[in-house]
Design brief:
The complex is a heterodimer of chains A (112) and B (115).
Chain A (H helix, E strand, L loop, with lengths): L3 E4 L2 E5 L4 E7 L4 E9 L6 E7 L4 E4 L2 E6 L4 E6 L8 E9 L5 E3 L3 E6 L1
Parallel strand pairs in A: 2-11
Antiparallel strand pairs in A: 1-3, 3-8, 4-5, 4-9, 6-7, 7-8, 9-10, 9-11
Chain B lengths: L3 E4 L2 E4 L5 E7 L5 E7 L6 E8 L2 E4 L6 E7 L2 E6 L8 E8 L10 E2 L3 E5 L1
Parallel strand pairs in B: 2-11
Antiparallel strand pairs in B: 1-3, 3-8, 4-5, 4-9, 5-6, 7-8, 9-10, 9-11
Classes of the chains: A mainly beta (112), B mainly beta (115).
């Protein structure tokens, strides 16, 4: 069964610190992996999309990595800010499908 | 929110009543999606559309129907609402579907409560 699992479920860090969120998937055949940020009460917003041939992609202070062999991805946030407080969702697409498979997200809270 | 609006944004209804949620886009994207988001679950696909009058079921389609008579509008109907359909509903759009580097943009969501 195609699944996406994220860890940790929740995370608390202090402003200015770095953190890394994890995503493991069993989706096959793999097409792409996305990371979304979802602020409370808002829709998800795309941070990065990586295909099979990409193993790292950055968007400002957000850097995503992908290991297609081990089916793992991580999202690294550098120098966290209060505005980084949100849920971060890992999403995987299988090849030749119009559907996305969503993880349950990691809830990040950044405190001053 | 990438030219996507959802209406209503909030709705409270009673069990057994019909409910229609509307998604409207100004991007002229071909693909439109309806998801629901519940605590402890990732977003789950209800139905999607790959063109005018072309729709297909997602993983949680029971109790829902959709229609797309124009490129810009995608309607989600709960024929007879149940308490299990209390959720936050998100519409999303994509120009070329879910493959490759194709972005999927999400609307602001509709919070539906069925009493």
């Amino acid at each position: 069964k195609n699944q996406v699992e994220q860890s940790p479920q929740s995370l608390i860090i202090l402003e200015g610190k770095n953190c890394t969120l994890q995503c493991n998937y069993t989706v096959s055949p793999f097409s792409n992996l996305r990371w979304y940020k979802q602020d409370t009460g808002r829709g998800p917003v795309s941070l990065t999309i990586m295909t099979f041939s990409e193993n790292t992609k950055s968007n400002g202070r957000y850097t995503a990595t992908l290991d297609a062999d081990t089916k793992q991805s991580s999202l690294h946030i550098t120098a966290s800010q209060l505005s980084d407080s949100a849920s971060y969702i890992c999403v995987v697409s299988a090849y030749n499908t119009d559907k996305l498979i969503f993880g349950t997200g990691t809830r990040l809270q950044v405190f001053p | 929110d990438a030219g996507i609006t959802q209406s209503p944004r909030h709705k409270v209804t009673e069990t057994g009543t019909p409910v229609t949620l509307r998604c409207h886009q100004t991007e002229n994207h071909r693909y439109m999606y309806w998801y629901r988001q519940d605590p402890g679950h990732g977003l789950r696909l209800i139905h999607y559309s790959y063109g005018v009058k072309d729709t297909d079921k997602g993983e949680v389609s029971d109790g829902y129907s959709v229609s797309r008579s124009k490129t810009e509008d995608f309607l989600l109907t709960l024929e007879s609402a149940t308490s299990s359909q209390t959720s936050v509903y998100f519409c999303a759009i994509s120009e070329y579907g879910a493959g490759g580097n194709n972005e999927q943009f999400f609307g602001p969501g509709t919070r539906l409560t069925v009493l």
